[in-house]
């Protein structure tokens, strides 16, 4: 009975050795496998103040360091293994051994958190296995300082207005005019970073709105003012005016020009000035508009005739005529309540003339 027992013990020992050998071979084979990253979270888009979590699952990496880094222009180490390196209470790290997954969480996301995050297994000084995930943070639009602020251009020249904005998602730039006036593109709005006017006209001057919007917050807006330089244009509201002797009369002209012009009044090619016979006043209603008034004081016979309103700037000149003629009946305004300074004979003659006109009108009826 002793010999068979020896055979059984030898057999058990050989079987145990074989199993142990196989286990060692399996362990060595696993140890020789190259670490891999089997999963990394896909790109994330979050709002400011939100929370994000990055998952990085690794295989065959028990003997290696697994790192999380923020890899932008200057890489920042966030964690090594299951230890958080960065001293920021918003960051936390968990390790799930059942899935060999490292979980990096960021709370109260800030704009500066946007960027690329890298999960990395360090195999040697020259060999690393990495996977990246991008975090984009929604940011409201902010119009850049290099956008156009104001333009002064000569009539007929090409004008280009530029508007750029930062933010995420990329903002859309829309152009409008003040009071929703039609743009030079013959539309109420125009979408694009650059608005061009090939041949600017004086009617194109005014305020333009560059509006940046990306659906985050209320967007941003910049007002861009365009001034167009052009030669004077004169309009006369009343080209012919009548007034009685010894009464005042106002002659008016409206000037449109930029830069503001020099304005003069002449009669018989003689420039008029403020004195006992004339009073000249200019009133600017806007940068481009000026109202000019010539008051002819206590009209005398020699003051009837044509008056010229003339405006000049470096782009040209313009003039318009106003004719002042004599009437018997004073015109109001500006003669309303005006004192009468004629002599007694003139008063009597004028009175008789007025009575005669009134009687003639009555009898013709």
TrEMBL record:
It comes from the Eukaryota. Pfam families: I-set, Ig_3, V-set. GO terms for cellular component: neuron projection. Keywords: Disulfide bond, Immunoglobulin domain, Repeat, Signal. Residues 35-136, 141-227, 232-323 form the Ig-like domain. Residues 1-31 form the signal peptide. PANTHER family: CTX-RELATED TYPE I TRANSMEMBRANE PROTEIN (PTHR12231), LACHESIN (PTHR12231:SF220). This is Lachesin. The gene is Lac.
């Amino acid at each position: 009975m002793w010999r068979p027992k020896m055979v059984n013990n030898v057999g058990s020992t050989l079987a145990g050795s074989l199993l142990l050998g196989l286990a060692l071979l399996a362990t060595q084979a696993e140890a020789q496998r190259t670490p891999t990253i089997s999963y990394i979270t896909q790109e994330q888009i979050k709002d400011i103040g939100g929370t994000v979590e990055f998952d990085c699952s690794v295989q065959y990496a028990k003997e290696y360091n697994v790192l999380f880094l923020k890899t932008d222009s200057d890489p920042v180490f966030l964690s090594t293994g299951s230890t958080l390196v960065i001293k920021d209470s918003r960051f936390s790290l968990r390790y799930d051994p059942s899935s060999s997954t490292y979980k990096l969480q960021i709370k109260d996301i800030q704009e500066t958190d946007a960027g690329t995050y890298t999960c990395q297994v360090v195999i040697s000084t020259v060999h690393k296995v990495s996977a990246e995930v991008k975090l984009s943070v929604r940011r409201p639009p902010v119009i850049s300082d290099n956008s156009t602020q104001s333009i002064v251009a000569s009539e007929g020249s090409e004008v280009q207005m530029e508007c750029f904005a930062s933010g995420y998602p990329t903002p859309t730039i829309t152009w409008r005019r003040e009071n929703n006036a039609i743009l030079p593109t013959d539309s109420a709005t125009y979408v694009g970073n650059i608005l061009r006017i090939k041949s600017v006209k004086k009617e194109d001057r005014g305020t333009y709105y560059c509006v940046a919007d990306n659906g985050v917050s209320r967007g941003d807006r910049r007002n861009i003012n365009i001034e167009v330089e052009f030669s004077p244009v004169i309009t006369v509201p009343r080209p012919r005016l009548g007034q009685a002797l010894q009464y005042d009369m106002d002659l008016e002209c409206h000037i449109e020009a930029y830069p503001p012009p020099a304005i003069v009044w002449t009669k018989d090619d003689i420039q008029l000035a403020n004195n006992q016979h004339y009073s000249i006043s200019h009133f600017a209603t806007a940068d481009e508009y000026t109202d000019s008034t010539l008051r002819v004081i206590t009209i005398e016979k020699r003051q009837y005739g044509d008056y010229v309103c003339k405006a000049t700037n470096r782009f040209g000149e313009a003039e318009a005529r106003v004719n002042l003629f004599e009437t018997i009946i004073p015109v109001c305004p500006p003669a309303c309540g005006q004192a009468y300074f004629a002599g007694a004979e003139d008063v009597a003659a004028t009175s008789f003339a007025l009575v005669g006109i009134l009687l003639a009108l009555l009898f013709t009826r």
